[in-house]
Recover the amino acids of this structure.
């Protein structure tokens, strides 16, 4: 029989962690937090830089269009009308895509209400500015386009239906149909919206302004196509 060795009493020694390790852990935690904060600020700066670039680009394009129109008006040079028409169509197309992306980006990132309001006001101001240029350019150069002012509100139940119909005609007629949406919910924030809604006495939503005529309520495809085709020349879609 094997004698069991004498059991030695095992002492549990508390695990000692030096102060240096605590300090190092604290430093690492601080650095990780600082890195995250710094990256967040960098991405925020990049986002606002992107928005500023979009705004600056639209501003330059708008100034170019205005000067082109003033040039034509001053010198009555009809030879440059095709250039103005091309620039106008491209600028409106860019406006529709670029500023819509900015607004979506702002809404997704939960920016302040003030900044969101400024972006929405900028969008509606640009739409009104290009609508005026399109209307005057059509008169001056007899451009084969139909500028449409589209008044709506976000809580209007039938406005999405009108928006879908307008999108259909933008696709069908391409560069010949220019739609300028005006959010009437901005009346109190943007004086221009109030001014133009009073000018046309807009009291129902949606409302369309085509060739200075007002059409209240949802314009169905058949009726709207007749109005558009009456303003266009030599368009296959109107045959």
């Amino acid at each position: 029989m094997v004698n069991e060795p004498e059991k030695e009493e095992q002492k549990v020694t508390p695990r000692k962690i030096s102060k240096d390790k605590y300090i190092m852990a604290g430093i690492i935690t601080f650095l990780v937090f600082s890195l995250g904060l710094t990256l967040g600020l960098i991405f925020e700066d990049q986002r606002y830089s992107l928005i500023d670039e979009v705004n600056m680009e639209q501003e330059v394009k708008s100034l170019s269009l205005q000067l082109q129109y003033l040039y034509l008006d001053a010198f009555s040079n009809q030879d440059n009308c095709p250039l103005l028409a091309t620039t106008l169509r491209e600028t409106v197309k860019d406006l529709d895509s670029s500023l819509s992306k900015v607004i979506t980006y702002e809404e997704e990132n939960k920016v302040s209400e003030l900044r969101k309001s400024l972006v929405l006001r900028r969008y509606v101001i640009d739409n009104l500015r290009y609508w005026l240029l399109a209307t005057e350019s059509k008169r001056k150069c007899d451009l084969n386009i139909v500028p449409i002012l589209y008044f709506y509100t976000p809580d209007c139940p039938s406005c999405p239906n009108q928006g879908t119909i307008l999108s259909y005609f933008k696709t069908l007629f391409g560069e010949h149909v220019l739609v300028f949406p005006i959010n009437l919910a901005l009346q109190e924030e943007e004086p221009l919206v109030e001014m133009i809604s009073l000018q046309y006495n807009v009291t129902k939503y949606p409302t369309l302004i085509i060739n200075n005529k007002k059409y209240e309520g949802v314009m169905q495809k058949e009726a709207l196509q007749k109005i558009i085709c009456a303003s266009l020349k030599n368009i296959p879609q109107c045959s």
